[in-house]
Each structure stands twice: as structure tokens, then as C-alpha cells.
Amino acid sequence: MKIRISLWVSMILCLSLLAGPASAEDGERGASRQSQRGYQVGDAVSNFRLKNTNGNMVSLSDFASSKGVIVVFTSNHCPFAKAYEDRIIALNNKFAGQGFPVIAINPSDPGTHQDDTFEKMKERAAAKNYGYPYLVDDAQQVARAFGAARTPQAFVLQKNGAQFAVRYVGMIDDNPQDASGVTKFYVDEAVTNLAGGKPVVTTLTKPVGCAIKWKNQ
User: Domain of life of the organism in this record (predicted)?
Assistant: First the structure.
């Protein structure tokens, strides 16, 4: 069964890549595209305020006492997001206590995928016992501001004075299909370096996942 699931996800990966490139190419071309579409590495992030699955409103400014945050744009319906769910939970379990908690944001249009309705988000957060906020980006304004294009897509932010600055953008790690086959732990390595007072080595990777469907398209 595990092999069958892995093959299924691999097929989806191939179809996703054939459908079009992710939001940024590697290296300089990636940095250029990202800068055109949203925040790039080094940019200060504007405050945002979104509804959590527990009904409360959550703002980036609520994390002013943190060293930083791990923002992950994700969704309920996407196979890639599902494959990364336990890894996102593990990131929060590892780094929240070090001052870098996870903030998960769902920008997916529920009109396209019913699994992404707010009610389904609440069900999923409760079933998996998320230890972090799972926010709904109804207007998709936060996703647009960040330049998010895929789910999942990660942004590692570091507290810089009174603001948060982007230090990493892209994949969570290098193996969407199989957590046991990961060789590059991009988000983990970025946060580990920042928590240790070191610069991030890999600052930009190409996100692989389900394309965000924009409501005005």
C-alpha cells in the first residue's frame, strides 16, 4: 500500500510539473520572479490578520515576542499538502519552543475544492490536533502579498527590530513524495541557522505542489 501511494503521488508530481513551472526558477531567475510577485528574501513583511479555525483572529503582530515564524501556505485538498502535513507538525513541535512557531495559511478557493471550506479546515485541524494556527485567507490578499503560488510553500521569517524579514522562500524539503527519502531539509536548516545566530545558506528553492487557484481568474 505504501508503494502504491508513493507511485500515485509521483504521478501527480509529474502532471503538476508538466502543467507549468512553479512560482520561481532556481537561482537568479527564481529571485527575479519572486521579487516581481511578492516578498523576496530580505524584505520586511507587512502585518496581516486572518481568522483561525478556533474562531479567533490571528495577526503576525501577535508573534512580536518570537524570534521569527515559519509561514506555510497549505490546503486541505492538495496531495502535496497532505504529504507534508506531519512534517509541518514536526517543524512546529521542534521549533516553536526555540521561538520559531508555525503559522499555516489556507488561500485555496473553496469554490474550486470543497475540502477547503472553513468547516473542513476546522475538522482537519481538530483531527490532527494542530499545535499552531490554521488561518483562512478568504480574500487571498495575504497569499498575493507573499507571492505564494503553490501549496505547500514555506516562508521563514526572522524578527528584525519591530518587523519580520524574509530569510527563506520555497520547499519545506527536497522530497514531496517520501519523508524518509529527504536529503535536504531546507526549512529545518534555515531555522536552525537563524536560531543559532547564523545566516541562512539556501535562501530560495522552487516550490512544488498544487497551484493556487485565484478567485478572479
Answer: Bacteria
Domain ranges, ordered by start, for the chain: 2-211
| Contact between 187 and 91 (Cβ < 8 Å) | yes
pLDDT per residue as tens digits for the range 56-73: 999 999 999 999 999 999
Interval 140-176: pLDDT, tens: 999 999 999 999 999 999 999 999 999 999 999 999 9
Asked whether the beta carbons of 95 and 101 are under 8 A apart, the reply is: yes
User: What is the rounded CA–CA span in Å between residue 154 and residue 173?
Assistant: 10
Task: Tell me the CATH number for domain 2-211.
Answer: 3.40.30.10
- Overall residue count recorded for the chain in this entry: 217
Torsion sign (Cα): 144, 85, 118, 22: positive
pLDDT tens, 18-53?
333 333 333 333 333 333 479 999 999 999 999 999
Question: Average pLDDT of the chain?
Answer: 87
For residues 164, 35, 32, 175, the Cα torsion angle rounded to the nearest 10 degrees is 60
